Amino acid sequence: MNSANTHIHLPPNFSAFESVEQAVALACDEEVGILGASNYYDFTVYSEFGTLCHQHSITPLFGMEIVLGLPELADRGVRVNDPGNPGKMYLCGKALSRWKTPTAEADRLLNTIRHNDSARMAEMVDRMAEIFAEAGVETRLDARRIVNSIVLRYGCAQETVYLQERHVAQAFQEALFQMVRQGERVQALSAILKAPVSADDEARTQAQIRNRLMKAGKPAFVEETFIGLEDGLRLISELGGIPCYPVLADGADVACEYEADVNALIEKLLALGIRHAEFIPNRNSPETLRAYVLPMRDAGLSVSAGTEHNTLDLLPMTPTCMDGEPIPDDVQAVFAQGARDLVEAQQ
User: Fold this and answer.
1) pLDDT over 70 at 1, yes or no
2) Which of 75, 23, 15, 55 is nearest to 39 (CA)?
3) Which pLDDT does position 216 carry in this prediction?
4) How confident is residue 151, by pLDDT bands cut at 50, 70 and 90?
5) Nearest by Cα to 326 from 337, 316, 313, 311
């Protein structure tokens, strides 16, 4: 095994995988030698993940993904690595060495995130249910019922489930498909979204629900309550990890302002003490990867690559570029070293 994938999401996070076993088995089949999980807000599943990885001679990496707010950038309309929300930053913690025994401060910060996020998602679900009911689709869904459905689906404990927008969109899509006959779904969904749409498959319907109802400025959107960058960096440190900036690059139709100039991005990351970056290459062209990754390496940053697998699309476990193009050899060498750097840091 000689390839690496340093960023996937495992259930009960929203994930392409039906189970941890499936994720690890697929990685083994593709000879992925280093596999990293980056779940949101709960690490219970990592015990099983670590055990299964070792059984398949895969080195596991334990990580996390958090969402931060940078008010000063939001006020200036600067997008960081979220193309639709200025001032919103995704940040990863890699090589967590204390995920089993978090410090009191780590617990405090995690509980703050969990509370704020759960309250927001509960309100968003209530708004979604009202919108569906107004269009004649009485789902009777609330946050508790959606959490319980995830518990049944994955056989996990209720306290390990933190709802994401994709969970909610999936729950409402499933309710719609259960309550409305196939030939009437396009009309029903168009009435719900107040726009002409197509509802020909589960994934597309979920995307339409999420994009037209749940995003900023849409009728079910609820403002997020973020922790700040300083607290995010502190949380990663308290968990014994290293901060990692996930670069979006081609993942935005128009480059996010924070990332548009690679040299300026490098300076900003180094000034924050962030010396590791990560790409999801299937969002990027080979040319873009070379334009970002090689200068980052030359500046002393470590860089790795993952697939995320946070949609229903069961993509290959080995990272590739956009449209399945191979990652350039010089970039792949940087990614391989970056994965080895994380393994060393976690030990």
Assistant:
1) no
2) 15
3) 84
4) very high
5) 316
Two structure tokens written together for 31:
């000879």
Q: Is the pLDDT of residue 335 over 80?
A: yes
128 SS3 class: helix
C-beta separation of 242 from 346 below 8 A: no
Contact 189, 176 (CB under 8 A): yes
**Max alpha carbon distance in the chain (Å)?**
58
How far, in Å, CA of 228 to CA of 130, rounded? 32
Angle at which helix 185-193 crosses helix 165-179, to 10 degrees, equals: 130
| Cα distance between residue 261 and residue 277, in whole Å | 15
What CA–CA distance (Å, rounded) separates 309 from 184? 31
Q: Write the burial class of residue 218 (CB in 10 Å: 0-12 exposed, 13-18 middle, 19+ buried).
A: middle
**172-210: pLDDT as tens digits:** 999 999 999 998 999 999 999 999 987 778 989 999 999
Q: What is the pLDDT of residue 45?
A: 97
> Is beta strand 88-94 parallel, antiparallel or unpaired with respect to 242-247?
antiparallel
User: Which residues contact residue 63 at a Cβ distance below 8 angstroms, ignoring those fewer than 6 apart?
Assistant: 6, 7, 36, 37, 38, 39, 92, 93, 94, 95, 96, 241, 244
Note the pLDDT of residue 258. 97
Return the sign of the alpha-carbon dihedral for residues 8, 12, 16, 18.
positive
Chain centroid to CA 58: 22
**Token pair belonging to 77:** 């309309």
Neighbour tally for 1: CB within 10 Å:
15
Average pLDDT over residues 107-130: 97
Block residue for tokens 């990580």: 63
List phi, psi (to 5°) of 130: -65, -40
